[in-house]
């Protein structure tokens, strides 16, 4: 699917912004602060999670507005998808409501089900620090990649976290905890964790294969290592998480043995919520965080492009890709190669930049929008 129409109402700086786009490259230009990133962020919110800025819902509401916001997108099938009917998906927050509403063709549904309609990937300036930040940032990155291939990953993670929160609460009870109740919670955690670990391992393995196939990429090649967050000596085999007879009792045993320690520190110390994705620069055999800023950017771009290939192979169609301010950081020849690669993948790619000249070589079929200070969009 690709986004053929987008409508934002009272979303951040946008009072009412509507646009129509085609598959292929979609380019947003305009001065700093006119609201380009806000448009891309709105698209990123059409997937499970809190969008690429990770913001609270209240931050998304236009400050001068009525107290709610809405994002709606019309999705059109790509020629290769085999699907025929367009779909309308949307999220919104009505004034005074505390949680967002998600709708598909007007029918309320869960945020996690959005990934069944649209696989969305992004690269933003904030991700420049991905390799320098703590593990939680890379874990979120890993989970985003994982759920574009395994949509149920998001549901397992939500359930795992809910059970873990209950375990932490129970361990903190002053009059002592009920071991039977804890057994049940740890069993629930283990069921979800088996899936989470399995899907992440699959993703890292498949993405690594994809990276190794990219012989002539102009962007750097990455070596990926998954730290599961819990000592798992053998990678999970089998075709699904259910085919792991040993992993669940193993996980339960770890949590059972660590109850008094976890109670003392007030949280669960081991588990997939502590995982990390370690990345190395292949050609330099060097951890990514020790390479130069430019090399880290090239690594990330290479990773994202490999993931686009993986999604295309697994889902039968490419994802929607959001590249915020990416073009400005590439030299002209790499920029041209990037446009060429993106066009050849056949999906929809949203790109932003301050100068329209950055996109001179983006091709005549690109949709181009200029946003001015009054948030008026013109195509050119
Ligand atoms: N909730 C909000 N209400 C009104 N304006 C907002 C809100 N959140 C952000 N903004 C404004 O949006 C603008 C930034 O838009 P952004 O999309 O990041 O710009 P750019 O075009 O540089 O990418 C800023 O001027 C900021 O003040
Ligand atoms: Mg911006």
TrEMBL record:
All copies of domain RecF/RecN/SMC N-terminal, residue ranges: 3-362
Top-level taxon of the source organism: Bacteria
GO biological process: DNA replication; DNA synthesis involved in DNA repair; double-strand break repair; SOS response
One Pfam family hit: SMC_N
Keyword tags: ATP-binding, Cytoplasm, DNA damage, DNA repair, DNA replication, DNA-binding, Nucleotide-binding, SOS response
PROSITE patterns linked to this entry: RECF_1, RECF_2
Cellular location(s): Cytoplasm
Molecular function terms from GO: ATP binding; single-stranded DNA binding
One GO cellular component term noted in the UniProt record for this chain: cytoplasm
Chief site of localization: cytoplasm
Residues involved in ATP binding: 30-37
Function description: The RecF protein is involved in DNA metabolism; it is required for DNA replication and normal SOS inducibility. RecF binds preferentially to single-stranded, linear DNA. It also seems to bind ATP.
Family of the protein in this entry: Belongs to the RecF family.
Protein name: DNA replication and repair protein RecF
């Amino acid at each position: 699917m690709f986004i053929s129409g987008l409508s934002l109402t009272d979303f951040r700086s946008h009072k009412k912004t509507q646009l129509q786009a085609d598959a292929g490259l979609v380019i947003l230009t305009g001065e700093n602060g006119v609201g380009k990133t806000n448009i891309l962020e709105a698209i990123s919110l059409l997937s499970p999670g809190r969008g690429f800025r990770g913001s609270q819902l209240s931050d998304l509401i236009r400050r001068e507005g009525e107290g709610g916001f809405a994002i709606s997108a019309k999705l059109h099938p790509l020629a290769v998808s085999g699907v025929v009917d367009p779909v309308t998906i949307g999220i919104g927050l009505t004034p005074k409501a505390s949680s967002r509403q998600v709708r598909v063709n007007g029918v309320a549904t869960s945020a996690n089900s959005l990934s069944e309609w649209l696989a969305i990937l992004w690269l933003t300036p904030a991700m420049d620090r991905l390799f320098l930040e703590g593990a939680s940032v890379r874990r979120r990155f890993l989970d985003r990649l994982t759920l574009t291939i395994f949509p149920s990953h998001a549901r397992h993670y939500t359930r795992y976290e809910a059970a873990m929160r209950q375990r932490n609460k129970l361990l903190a009870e002053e009059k002592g905890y009920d071991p039977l109740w804890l057994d049940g919670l740890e069993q629930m955690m283990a069921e979800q964790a088996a899936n989470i670990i399995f899907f992440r391992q699959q993703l890292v393995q498949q993405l690594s294969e994809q990276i190794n196939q990219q012989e002539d990429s102009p962007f750097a090649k990455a070596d990926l290592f998954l730290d599961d967050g819990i000592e798992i000596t053998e990678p999970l085999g089998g075709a699904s998480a259910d085919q792991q007879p040993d992993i669940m009792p193993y996980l339960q045993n770890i949590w059972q043995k660590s109850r008094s320690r976890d109670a003392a520190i007030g949280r669960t110390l081991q588990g997939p919520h502590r995982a990390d994705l370690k990345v190395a620069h292949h050609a330099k055999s060097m951890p990514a965080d020790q390479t130069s800023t430019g090399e880290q950017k090239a690594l990330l771009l290479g990773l994202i492009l490999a993931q686009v290939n993986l999604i295309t192979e697994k889902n039968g169609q490419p994802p929607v890709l959001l590249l915020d301010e990416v073009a400005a950081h590439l030299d002209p020849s790499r920029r041209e190669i990037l446009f060429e690669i993106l066009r050849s993948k056949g999906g929809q790619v949203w790109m932003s930049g301050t100068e329209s000249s950055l996109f001179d070589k983006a091709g005549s079929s690109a949709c181009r929008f200029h946003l001015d200070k009054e948030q008026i969009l013109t195509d050119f």
